[in-house]
Amino acid sequence: MAADAASETTYGFSPVPASASILLATDAPATPPPFIAVTQTPIPSTALAKRINEYAEANLPEPTYNHSLRVYHYGLAIKQYRFPDWNFTDETYLLACLLHDIGTTEENLNATKLSFEFYGGFLALEVLQRGDSGPDAPKEQAESVAEAVIRHQDLCEKGRITALGQLLQLATIFDNTGLYADLVHPSTIEDVSTHYPRLKWSHCFASTIHRELEIKPWAHTTALGVEDFPNKVLSNTLMASYE
């Protein structure tokens, strides 16, 4: 069943180009990105956001948890600068950020033969709709987050993706490799990195990539290059001074 207009707006189902290069070539602004401080993109205080934030903090290693919150703040800075008409809620985006790497923990890597993004999407769907310690997410919100988590490393040049999924892709690739450096003001990077330190994230994430490929040599991460992708992560010069 197709998502209705309300859910497309609220939960980020609006279809946008899957190709970041095509998307970013459209209506490029004449001005550089503004400085957007962490205080200008606050974490939502809803009961659902608090529940999932507590779940993520309890289940993710600190470097991964910090990465998830950097992706949140970078993503909203990118959205304000380039995509102000994307009107999905900050809460929905936060949920996607907090859960996008839930499949990378050592426990979850070993719990399944599925690639970490796919298993992470299933976990996100379950956690969001299992409100044993707080409220459930609405079904379509949970599905939008799961879709974004499953596709956050699905970097395509053809087709479409949800607006939520595209923003998650842009912000994760930005934090992981330094790509799209022109989308975020340097002072925003400094402020976000001060609030959520990288803690040698590049080496941590590269090790996670190698660990998954050791366990699952068929994993979807190989679509980004068996050696190319971890090398790009380790060669992230934009973030090197914050490692």
UniProtKB/TrEMBL annotation:
Alphabetical list of Pfam families matching this protein: HD (PF01966)
Stretch forming the signal peptide: none
Database matches in SMART domains: HDc
Family matches, as InterPro entries: Cyanamide_hydratase_HD (IPR017771), HD/PDEase_dom (IPR003607), HD_domain (IPR006674)
Source taxon at top rank: Eukaryota
Record domain HD: where: 64-177
Protein name in UniProt: Cyanamide hydratase
